[in-house]
Every structure is written in C-alpha cells, then in structure tokens.
Design goal:
With about 230 residues, this protein is an alpha/beta fold. The chain has two domains: about 140 residues, Rossmann fold (3-Layer(aba) Sandwich), CATH 3.40.50.11700; about 80 residues, Arc Repressor Mutant, subunit A (Orthogonal Bundle), CATH 1.10.10. The protein is built from eight helices and eight strands. The strands form two sheets. A six-stranded mixed β-sheet has the order 3-2-1-4-5-6, with helices on both faces. Strands 7-8 form a two-stranded antiparallel ribbon. The longest helix is centred in the C-terminal third of the chain and has 19 residues. The radius of gyration is 22 Å and the shape is elongated. The mean pLDDT is about 90. This is DUF6293 family protein. It comes from Methanomicrobium antiquum. Pfam families: HFX_2341_N.
Length: about 230
C-alpha cells in the first residue's frame, strides 16, 4: 500500500528533510506539509520552509500544503483526521511526521493518530560538539494510545447518529429497522436509548435541540472524533 506522509512544519528545514531520508518509508508517494492556519508570529518562516521543500521535492514526489489550526488543539485534531480520511479514501495509508512540529501540532497529531490508528513518527536530533543541531540521529515511531472509552451500545448509537437525526424515533429505527413502531419492544428500546443519550450528552459526545415537538440529536466535535475510531471493541 502506498503511503502519504503528513509532515508538520516548524522552523527546522534540515531536520525535516533528514527525517524523510531516515524514515525508510520507501512507499511514500505523497507528502502533505501542514502549516499554521493563523498568520501569527513565526508562521511566515514555517510557510516559507514548506514552500521551499515542496519546490525541491517537486521533480520526484507529489506534495501539497495544508493549513491547520495551531491554537485550538481539538479543532486541529479534527482537521488532521479529515486529511487522514481523505488520503485513506485514495487507498493510501498515512504516517504522521511530527519531527519538526510545533508543540500544539504534535498534540493534535497525536490525538488524530490515536483515533485513526495512523503511524506517528518523530526524530531524535543530532548535535555536534558545540551543541549545534546538525541533522537527525534517529527516526522513531511513537506508539499511539488505544482510544475507546464508550460501551459497545453507546458506540453503536454514536455511529447511528452520524450526520444527525431529527427525532428519537428516527434514531431508534436506524438502530433497529425491524422494530414495529410503537410496539412494546419499541418503547423498551426507546427507554434504553434515552438512557444512553443522557449519558452521552453529559459526557459531551452529543447535543440535543428542540424542533417543534421533536428533539434532534447531533454529534459534538468529540462525538465526531469517536465516530472515526476504527475497530473499537470493549
């Protein structure tokens, strides 16, 4: 399987280039350079480095530049997850390279990598006798944490809500299409689902809003992240 490497760009051009060489990912066919969405202090240099490396690599590898929120870690993680999912739809696996990243990018990348089960790599800098950084000593893989802290039935509800439901009845029928509406079994299921929705709302995974006589249910940002977790079993 071909690999897309998502590279978080800071101010260390040589470290980034050295990390490509020493990562030993022979199947990399695309690089996405991530820079800050906000034009804050130091960002101009990061963007210039990304453009410079992109030009230098243009003759032998495809590359893009993506802009990600570097101040809001949660929003940044959501944006990185979207990048990962987009590349996976192309048939590529994804490696997150945080060798030269800003601290907030590293946190967002770690969250996104743990949720999507993507590989995360970073580098150990190499220094000369005068303690000047002169490259990369070694590229190492950072183990991602297994992320799954919902019960099976709660995860099923999260996945069924998806882009949102306009009523509790709609959610129940998504969960159990064979149920006869307003039967005894239907009301039992309604009670069960209502209990789990209360827990999910209190935990920040969903939010409800009243629409006429109905209550619509949607995923929060945290719920959306959870819906992207693969192979989640409890």
């Amino acid at each position: 399987m071909k690999i897309t490497q998502i590279v978080f760009v800071g101010h260390h051009k040589e470290r980034l280039i050295d990390s490509f060489v020493k990562s030993d990912d022979k199947l990399v066919d695309k690089i996405i350079f991530v820079v800050g969405e906000q034009a804050s202090s130091g960002e101009e240099k990061s963007r210039a480095i990304a453009e410079e490396i992109k030009r230098e690599l243009s003759s032998f590898i495809s590359s893009d530049i993506a802009y990600v929120d570097k101040k809001d870690v949660k929003r940044g993680a959501l944006q990185i997850i979207s990048l990962i999912k987009s590349e996976e739809k192309r048939g590529n696996s994804v490696v997150l390279n945080i060798s030269g990243s800003l601290r907030t990018f590293a946190v967002s990348a770690y969250i996104a990598g743990s949720i999507t089960k993507s590989r995360i790599i970073t580098s150990i800098p190499l220094y000369d006798d005068n303690e000047n950084e002169i490259g990369v000593e070694e590229v190492i893989e950072v183990p991602a944490l297994p992320v799954c802290f919902l019960r099976d039935e709660q995860m099923q509800i999260i996945l069924s809500i998806d882009e949102g439901v306009d009523s509790l009845d709609e959610l129940i029928m998504r969960l159990n299409p064979s149920l006869e509406k307003y039967s005894n079994d239907f009301y039992k299921e309604r009670s069960r689902v209502s209990h789990h929705l209360k827990v999910l709302e209190e935990s920040g995974f969903i939010f409800k809003s009243k629409k006429g006589r109905n209550i619509s249910v949607n995923l929060s940002d945290l719920g959306w992240m959870m819906s992207r977790i693969e192979d989640c079993s409890v």
